[in-house]
Amino acid sequence: MAMSAPSTQPGEPPAAKPTVVLVALWGVSHFAPMVEVGKRLLALSGGHSLAVDVLVVPSPTGKWEAEIFERIRREEASGLDIRFHHLPTVEPPTDYMHIAGIEEFVSRYVQLYVPHLKAIVSGLACPVAAVVVDIFCTTLLDAPQELGVPAYVFLISSAAMAAVLLRSPSLDEEVPAELEFVELEGGVDVPGLPPMPASNLPTGLDNRKIMTYKWFLYNGRRYMETHGIIINTIAELEPSVLAAITEGRCTRGIPTPPVYTIGPVVAIAPPAEDKHECVRWLDSQPTASVLFLCFGGGGGYFSVAQVHGIAQGLERSGHRFLWVLRGQPEPGTKLPTDANLAELVPDGFVERTKDRGLVWPARAPQKEVLAHAAVGGFVTHCGWSSITESLWFGVPTLPWPHAAEQHFNAFMLVAEMGVAVGMKLDKERSNFVEAAELERAVKALMGDGEAARKARERAMEMKAACRKAVEEGGSSVVSLQRLHDALIQGVVEQRK
């Protein structure tokens, strides 16, 4: 039975609703799912038992700032009981230019916000049910712990990623210090997962000599200090690894905090009144005939040699395609620009393929495209947000990972989930894919063979499972209710 918020005695003024403090990072792929968690908690309770405060950690470089501000403006106009607090900019670690990985940078950068977080939480007029931090932000746990406030960690990624992080400290102890994981025979052992080549470990966890590796272990250890681990997945997608986590097999038999699978955290907006040009083009294509190539909001740009290889592979494959191609970033920036097709694609390519392909040189509405009936496959960089969107719409994938945990996600899509067809790439050459290999993989995914049939069937099974999970009585709704009840219970226990 769901628990209600603490009541007041007759004659007393109504108690302020307890709030959940969400600490949101500046990247859109982190910020948007964190806010969506808050919105779902509010929707579950009808806004009667909880409020939400979002603390926005500013980008140290200004990247994504305009888009984050626009999203905040829309949320504030929605009338939901969500309050946004913009944290002040602080100087990043003095040696930040020498930090090897983003996981180390984020861990150390947000640590500088512990005093700010503590001041805001202690200064709120309402009870604080919990503080929720992002995947590599466990340095912030010091603040709620000092205040006696429950703390949770939210992984925008998979349960498999949670298992790897929880497993990493004991794995480090088990493998002799002089060995790298790539030297292990039979792959890396993570309970609940198939034997995994070390080359598929998240970037930073695959090199024991760098400091970023130590921060992976640090965060994995601190997950055990939380009141719960919230994961953007569904129980039906990763049953084996979830069982391994909850049974303590990733943590040497030590019970983990409660796990809450509340995904897929995908915000679906109503269709735009004015269709995007990509969507209008898809309207004229046969059902499930188009391969969609898109590599995330922060990526999608390639060398000229790789662009030519993609073009050759697509042309030779004979299949229809919608290719979102971006240009190199401006000097001093990291975000892609609109592509100059005349400079990038081979001469005559656009003309030769105009009857079955569209090369789009700017950002495209990925969710609207994936939702379209004409799309039958998705070449993705394997960011978890893109993966959950492809699962939500039942589109099989062709993984082309680049960095971070994307190689790990690609491995899971093929080896564990069965919703993808694998493709060979050269990590030593910036994940280069030869034209012939892309041609083979496209034909394997979009053709009529056994691999394509299995990937399509499995993708449609996951589509049905994702939608059922967020319906009344579905696994994610039940898990979200458990989380809501735990949050309210946390307020009750703080008042004792």
Structural summary, described in words:
41% of the residues lie in helices and 12% in strands. Strand 6 (228-231), helix 8 (239-246) and strand 7 (259-261) form a beta-alpha-beta unit. The longest helix has 21 residues, at 475-495. The two termini are 21 Å apart. The strands form three sheets. A seven-stranded parallel sheet has the order 3-2-1-4-5-6-7, with helices on both faces. It contains 18 helices and 14 strands. The chain is an alpha/beta fold and 496 residues long. The model is unreliable at 1-14 (pLDDT under 50). Belongs to the UDP-glycosyltransferase family. Keywords: Transferase. GO terms for molecular function: transferase activity. It holds the Pfam family UDPGT. This is Glycosyltransferase.
Major beta sheet summary: 7 strands, parallel
Radius of gyration computed on alpha carbons: 23 Å
Could you give the count of β-strands? Answer: 14
| Amount of beta strand | 5-15%
The best one-word shape is globular
Helical/strand content category: alpha/beta
- Average per-residue pLDDT, rounded, comes to 92
Alpha carbon gap, first and last residue: 21 Å
Low-confidence stretches: 1-14
Strand order of the largest sheet: 3-2-1-4-5-6-7
Could you outline the blueprint of secondary structure elements for this entry?
Layout: E1 19-24, H1 28-45, E2 51-56, H2 65-77, E3 82-86, H3 102-111, H4 114-123, E4 128-134, H5 142-147, E5 151-155, H6 159-174, H7 211-223, E6 228-231, H8 239-246, E7 259-261, H9 277-283, E8 290-293, H10 304-317, E9 320-324, E10 326-327, E11 337-338, H11 341-344, H12 349-352, E12 357-360, H13 366-371, E13 375-380, H14 384-393, E14 397-399, H15 406-417, H16 435-446, H17 450-469, H18 475-495
Parallel strand pairs: 1-2, 1-4, 2-3, 4-5, 5-6, 6-7, 8-9, 8-13, 9-12, 13-14
Antiparallel strand pairs: 10-11
Helix pairs in contact: 1-18, 3-7, 6-7, 6-8, 10-16, 14-17
